[in-house]
Here is the input.
Amino acid sequence: MPSPQQNNESSPEPAPETSTSKDNKEKGATTNEIMIIDPDTLELDLNHGRVSKLENLEPLTQIERLFLRWNLITKIENLDTLVTLRELELYDNQIVKMENLGCLVNLEILDLSFNRIKEIEGLENLHNLEKLFLSSNKISKIKNVKHLKKLTMLELGDNKLREIENLEDMPALTHLYLGKNKISKIKNLDSLTNVTCLSLQSNRITHIENLDKLTQLTELYISENGIHKIENLTHNTLLQTLDLAKNKIKLIENIDHLDDLEEFWMNDNQVSDWATVENLSKNKKLATVYLERNPVEKDPMYRRKLKMIAPSLTQIDATLCQS
Here is the structure.
């Protein structure tokens, strides 16, 4: 089963690197300086370059995309001349502070995932920013983003957030990723009426609630929480993907109005009664269902029964249905 946190279009998973190899770099392996060969380039890729310092970038008078993933950079600096920059990726470095970004007024994509950042700051002048990736840092509070009126994607998965807050009046936001935090309650989302994808995986949520105003929602990922009941989805009629895996749910209910539902992930729950599974017959577009590791899976007729209940299924758990 795929995870939306891995569908980050600007931040795919890095190539495997053992902790030992990275530790060796940090303990004194050779580092490199940035050397500019073509000052007129629009794109510069220095991924895996063992770069330890942002410097010598002044000749890049036309640069639009700068990639510095998987390096040893500790400080954001010396970017003042890169006013043409539209995309900056500093994924998987050792940066502790968001700073010295004020001159990047044309920046549209900023990726600072997998660093050591504790606070969202330094974005005051980035009014053209459309995508902000800050996953796998040490951020404990959502703040200083409300002025980003063009922001469509905010990725804050795998941080230390306890509350959903300070996201009011962000009309362009369509994708919000808050998985793998310490959030206990869904709240403060009413103004995000254009959000189509919401990820709240691996938190401490016990109730599905306060989603009434998210009427454009097509994808809801809320697996690995403490949810006991499917509820309060009355106004989310456009849902196509609903991920409720690894919760404590016993009944499949309150989804018969989801006419566009195609993906329903309910593996690792407590569904034991086939009568409740039969409620899936109302979802005529259902293509994929995950119910493995529920008590009903022990039935030797498990797959056949599911297919009879929902003839539209093309995949049950990880296996395609036979035509």
